[in-house]
Queue: 3 jobs
Job 1
Amino acid sequence: MRLNSQDIHTRFRRHAVRVTRQRAAIYQALAETTSHPTANELYQTVKRQHPMISRNTVYYTLGVLRQAGLVQEVNVGHEVARFDGNVTVHHHLICLGCSQIVDVMDEALNQLAVSDGQARGFRILGHRVEFHGYCAGCQRAKLDAPQRSRQEH
Ligand SMILES: [Zn+2]
Ligand SMILES: [Zn+2]
């Protein structure tokens, strides 16, 4: 989604975040991708247009934006945190081979609920479903690998 600076200012104001040029650039880069980048990947992207930006600024800003509810953190197993600029309710397909994360928008999943008996007094604020497996590319690579080694013999 292409965001103009007016959109960014409005969102920041709504979440009580002070706007700086660098913060806006970091948020924009994250909001415009669906790749769920790591903080370092985001730094590499933003640096292309803002060569003076520091890695620390990107990490710190991600923390500020996360606390404000403008971005969310996605943790996949023991890997480094990935970030998502889409904070609307959605779910994820996670590839165990290449670690890609793909968004799933599904109204039925949004409606999932825990029965009162299982909730054990929790006041539930939300949920996110993760599907783990192998993407099409990784499945193909797995199928190709044994064939290639057979051809070599
Ligand atoms: Zn994959
Ligand atoms: Zn997502």
Job 2
Amino acid sequence: MIELRAAETDDELELWRSVRIAVLPNERTAPVAELRSGGGFMLLAFRDGELAGSGSASKSDIGGGAVTPRVLPAHRRRGVGAALLQQLARHAEECGHSEAGSMVDDAGSLAFAQRFGFSETGRQVEQVRPVGPDEPRPAVPDGIEVVTVAERPELLQRLYHELALQAFEDMPTPRKVEITLEEWKAEWLNWPEATFIALAGDEVVGMAGLNFDADQPDRAENTLTAVRRDRRGRGLARMLKETATAWASAHGIREIYTWTQTGNDNMRAVNERLGFFTRDMSISVRRALPL
Ligand SMILES: CC(C)(COP(=O)(O)OP(=O)(O)OC[C@H]1O[C@@H](n2cnc3c(N)ncnc32)[C@H](O)[C@@H]1OP(=O)(O)O)[C@@H](O)C(=O)NCCC(=O)NCCS
């Protein structure tokens, strides 16, 4: 028998996290406090009393809803994913969304999504860089100064307005990313000491940084790397990412990973030159609601 239950208490949210960590072991899973502040609808699935899956319904950064059913491998092909998806999609619809998106990483999950009428809208590539113990800090070009968000917290708003919004406009996502300053800070800027800003005099011209992973502090995800349009093509992204890598190296991090849209050739080329290799691919899928 399949039973679905909203995850509300801390213990239930930890169960929710345990499924996500098992299904997506290479990725950071938000801690309970961050899940709560994200405001998503969190659902648990039990099969014959055993934890079998979890999922969430929330607002997507590219508009509409985002639904993410996940089932532990031992419980697949027993209808758990379908039960989760139906309730999550209903919730997204009740929130006023007329469509919903999700991500799938393997052929079986893509077959599941297609079975429920989702179709592909784009792809993301995961690139990974092992980090050695003595990564050198790069030279900083003349006229540029590198500071961290921890040192200059007053620059946060300007990072969002002058860099992040421009970068989101230029990303080849199926729809434009729409994210408020508050959401951006919560999702993309959880490690001020590891978020580097390039300044040219008083102008904010670039940023790159890392997101902290409390479950696995020896790995970190690259957050947004962005260079102001008029300053691109001069090695700033590379210098900022090397700065973040050197910082990671000195702070015990041994792996940095990053997700980039296919079509974002500039960012992927920068990463390849920095020693990143491709580990995984993820397909974005979408469909109209109701299911
Ligand atoms: C996708 C996922 C949630 C499916 O969970 P599940 O409990 O195994 O799915 P269900 O048993 O409810 O499958 C319902 C139908 O989807 C299709 N389907 C599911 N998995 C499939 C697979 N591996 N190959 C082909 N078809 C599949 C089948 O039509 C299936 O019905 P059937 O078993 O009667 O043939 C699970 O594989 C998973 O957690 N994947 C990783 C996370 C993810 O990608 N989520 C999907 C977001 S849309």
Job 3
Amino acid sequence: MARYIIGVDVGGTKIATGVIDKSGKLKKKVILPTLSAKGFKVSLQQVYNSIDEIMNLSKVRKSDIAGIGVCAPGPLDPIKGIVHNPPNLKGWKEVPLVGLLRKKFKKKVKLENDANAAGMAEAIWGAAKGYKHVFYVTVSTGIGTAVIIDGKIYHGKNGMAGEGGHVTINYDGKDEVCGCGNTGCIERLASGPGTVKDLVKKLKKDPSNKTSILDMADGDPGNITMVMVGEAAREGDKLALDTIKEQGRRLGIWLGSMISLLDPEVIVIGGGVSSLGDLILRDIKKAIPPHSINIYAKKTPVVLAKLKRDVGIFGAASVLM
Ligand SMILES: [Zn+2]
């Protein structure tokens, strides 16, 4: 019986590859540069190399490997196994990645986008273990989501479902254009960069605001990052605390709608924002019930993701479970 799965997390700068056993133990991992600036041929070869290397390093017999799971930045089609044209993988256009890997390694191969894969990993080995209906959210530079119904990722007709980060919250929000081109998406309003953008706006409007965040940024608002905001909040900085409170409120308002729509058993929050812990969780939870028609909304657990490091590898492997 094949006991191991190879998980390949293809990112714009690095490829993280690991061998995981079915109980969720990471046996070995290897990180290679994607070399994406060198174009499609080179970066695809790096994907091949990473798999060859992990097989050599882990000393797992090929017959013990059940398959290869790959997660990559979207847009991609997990049903057809095609990577469309991710902005951070130069030269990748309509790449039939699943077919290519299957031919080369003679193994079962599955492809999934980053957020869906991370959500599945949480459902199998992480904070949502034991639950069948899961809404997973990752809040970092963007907001990605995964909808898991009956233990399966919901893909929709074209494999494009689960883009909860681009739900419109403020449709006529001036100056709130999201990276996707739409106005007032929750990603624009509550992701790390979106939150920082609004904080900088506030600072410019009222320069008398006293905050240690500016000192951390050497006096230049352009240097402010979400990590600085978190640090300042932990030290009790009022502006930082208010900023995170508002970020939590916005996420909660949005999650209230998500609960109305999906009635999940659990909501898992991952990504950079999860390192804020209770600092943000409190305000998320507070904002949910008044913004949901679901009478169980208040009781729906909102928990922090468990798999932090290597979540990409676990995510990639989880789609083969
Ligand atoms: Zn958007």
